[in-house]
Design brief:
This protein folds into two domains: 110 residues; 30 residues. The chain is built from four helices and no strands. Helix 1 packs across helix 3. The protein is elongated.
Length: 168
């Protein structure tokens, strides 16, 4: 039956396994974190030691790796074959996160620099404007000069009044 609705494109059918890349990436990171621990190394060492001891000294009819530890080698090779790509995937995801964080840090540093330059200009402007603001000393000097001028004018006025009085 063909679709009559042409408003949405058909998706091509892909063969193969479908998975959630983010979930798989998180799984690979958890595996990589576990493989990088001392606990894992101890467990693996104990496992290998028990394997060798059992297949060397155990009862002959109960030994399960009779060909000089070919089974152990195969098991460790299989583990390495899966561990290496999982670790690389985890490293790639970490590299992407680091790249994104670096880009965010760069943008933040640029914004901080622009803000700092703006504030420096504002402070310089405030300093320039404060240079033309009258200080208390300036005001005291002006009041003192005005007081002197008023005193001189009062003295002159008294002098003129005395002269006028003397003429009458």
């Amino acid at each position: 039956m063909k679709r009559l609705d042409l408003s949405t494109p058909r998706q091509r059918r892909r063969l193969g396994v479908h998975y959630d890349p983010d979930a798989f990436g998180q799984f690979s990171e958890s595996v990589a974190r576990y493989l990088g621990t001392a606990r894992f190394l101890v467990f693996q060492s104990v496992f290998c030691l028990l394997w060798v001891v059992w297949n060397t000294f155990g009862p002959a009819d109960l030994r399960f790796d009779e060909w000089q530890f070919v089974g152990l080698t195969l098991l460790l090779s299989l583990q390495a074959a899966y561990a290496a790509p999982l670790i690389l995937l985890a490293q790639n995801r970490q590299e992407q996160r680091d790249r994104m964080q670096s880009e965010t840090d760069r943008r933040l540093a640029e914004r901080n620099q622009a803000d700092t330059e703006f504030l420096a200009r504002e402070i310089a402007s405030v300093r320039l404007n404060l240079g033309s603001v009258a200080t208390t000393t300036d005001l005291d000097e002006h009041v003192e000069r005005l007081t002197d001028a008023v005193d001189r004018m009062a003295a002159r006025l008294d002098e003129l009044v005395t002269r006028l009085d003397a003429q009458h």
